[in-house]
Design goal:
Elements (H helix, E strand, L loop, with lengths): L3 E2 L6 E2 L3 E3 L9 H13 L4 E3 L14 H13 L6 E6 L15 H14 L5 E6 L8 H13 L3 E7 L3 H14 L4 E7 L5 E2 L13 H10 L2 E5 L6 H7 L5 H7 L2 H17 L3 H10 L5 E5 L4 H8 L8 H10 L3 E2 L1
Parallel strand pairs: 3-4, 3-11, 4-5, 5-6, 6-7, 7-8, 8-10, 9-12, 10-11
Antiparallel strand pairs: 1-2
Helix pairs in contact: 1-2, 1-11, 9-10, 9-12
Amino acid sequence: MKRIMLNNTDLSVSPLCMGTVHYGTAVNSEDAKEQLSRFIELGGNFIDTAHIYGDWVRGLRGRSERVIGEWIKETRRRSDIIISTKGAHPDILLDPSIPRVNPEAIENDLDESLDFLNTDYIDLYFLHRDDPSVPVEEILDTLEKARSEGKIRYYGCSNWTLPRIIEASNYAREQNIPGFVCNQLMWSLADINSRGVTDKTLVIMDEEIYDYHKKTGMNAMAYTSAARGYFSKLKQGGQIAQDIQAAYDTASNMQIFEELVNTADELNADIIQVEIAFLMNQEFPSIPLVSFSSIGQLEQGMGSCQLELDEDTVNRLCNLKEYVIE
């Protein structure tokens, strides 16, 4: 399988990143480990998790990271994978409204992630949220300290607004440090009705952010990259959950859907493969995050890595997008 070299790093990653949000909860430990092994067999090497994943179930903390750590210990395949994880998320059981982006929380979460994952280092470490009241200097200095100690190789931001990303970039330039090398945000081929997204701390790819990535070449990782199966559900003609409709029922998405179906038919591919391949074919390194509930889904999704979309196809789909609809 081809590899993508992330800009301003030496990380060579598979064009699709395995999402593990449900490991240890909806996807049990045994099935999760089977997925990880099959992902590697199919040529994947990029795995994403977060310190908070699974904490919505009371009891053991860090369930997703722990499952991955068990798999690493059992298979001894740490050197075969690139791990990204995220920290400094609000405590969802204690008080999700209280930010935790501060040196103490970052250091605590990072050390626990290293322990849970059975590894000495994280390849790409993300701050899962932001706290605009904390100066970016304080945040980046903390991450630089962890990098100098060998705990992380590179770091990025998730759900940060563009002004804060630019502020952090300016500070990194002044200090001659790498700064954020990747931005992880909500993004898919589908347009998003922001009023239908209940979690207002999520940052959605819009035209301004998209243009920034094109201008700077900053790496991007897209979560909810298949729009929670919205287009697939439309094609199947089945019932679509109300919260998914609220986020994705837009006039522009009906036009995108028509073009998507035609493109998939021309390429003899599943529409979800075209959706994912669209994200892979951008002017800047762009890695879709995809979670799977079964090995069959995983094998189908990995087919997108072999799907070639020409420039005209990508442009046609891009021209239909309105990005965020208020």
